[in-house]
Write a structure and sequence with these properties.
This protein is of the alpha/beta class. The chain has ten helices and seven strands. A five-stranded parallel sheet has the order 2-3-1-4-7, with helices on both faces. Strands 5-6 form a two-stranded antiparallel sheet. A hairpin with a 2-residue loop joins strand 5 and strand 6. Helix 3 crosses helix 4.
């Protein structure tokens, strides 16, 4: 039987850009699971509801994609399954996250405007990258997503694992289970491979759509501050890079 792919969409790691190509698969072949952050149990219930609404079984879609895809969500599938993701240099990912939050803080129509405004605006002033890094904003997000997705507790949600050692161990475990890990710095090649699995061709050049007015030149002190708060992400990213090298 054809392999079924479960794709874990990590924030600011080109997932939205990939969907511009993958969306051409159609609603019977693609299910998006990205609105259920409360727990993995609610994510599984959301997936099952979408399948029921479309009169599909768990074996029908070729791709299950989203922020809330976790290891084991495939448990009722009879098709062979593989897990995949795309990762990004942790400092560059954090910078993209900052710019995205700033954009949303300035756009009242954004669904996360209130959160974004509270996160990056104080006393009417926009917080700098360095200040947000000093406050520990959005740290180790790739690690938290992967570790939560690996946690066997169906009631677990992101940010629920407190121990750095456990976060790292569980994220490593998911990285080791991945059949494919792409990277933003090789995204055009990786996108071609990913869409090729489903008989598609790459449609759009992947690019950062953020329009935030932030200087392109970022000082070493700021970069060091960002790197310091994302040490776990760096370790998990390095593990994934080594996996990719080993698989070539």
């Amino acid at each position: 039987m054809q392999t079924q792919i479960y794709f874990v969409h990590l924030p600011k790691c080109a997932g939205t850009a990939l969907l511009k190509s993958l969306g051409r698969m159609g609603k019977r072949r693609l299910i998006i699971v990205s609105k259920y952050p409360q727990s993995k149990r609610t994510a599984a219930q959301g997936l099952n509801q979408q399948l029921a609404d479309r009169r599909l079984s768990i074996d029908d879609p070729d791709l299950i994609f989203g922020h809330d895809v976790f290891y084991g969500i495939h448990q009722n599938a009879s098709r062979p399954v593989q897990y995949a993701t795309v990762m990004r240099d942790p400092v560059q990912r954090w910078i993209s996250q900052y710019r995205y939050i700033v954009d949303c803080s300035q756009n009242k129509s954004s669904p996360i405007h209130d959160y974004a405004h509270a996160a990056v605006v104080e006393n009417g002033q926009l917080l700098s990258m360095q200040r947000c890094a000093e406050k520990g904003q959005w740290t180790n997000m790739m690690t938290n997503y992967l570790a939560a997705a690996m946690d066997p507790n169906l009631e677990s949600a992101r940010w629920g694992i407190q121990s750095d050692a456990q976060l790292k161990q569980m994220a490593f475990a998911f990285v080791d289970k991945m059949s494919f890990i792409g990277f933003v710095d090789t995204i055009e090649r990786d996108e071609a491979e990913i869409v090729g699995w489903f008989g598609l061709r790459p449609k759009l050049k992947v690019a950062n759509s953020s329009k935030t007015k932030v200087a392109d030149r970022i000082g070493d002190e700021v970069l060091e501050a960002i790197a310091e708060i994302n040490g776990l992400d760096q370790a998990v990213y390095d593990r994934a890079r080594q996996r990719r090298i080993s698989d070539l």
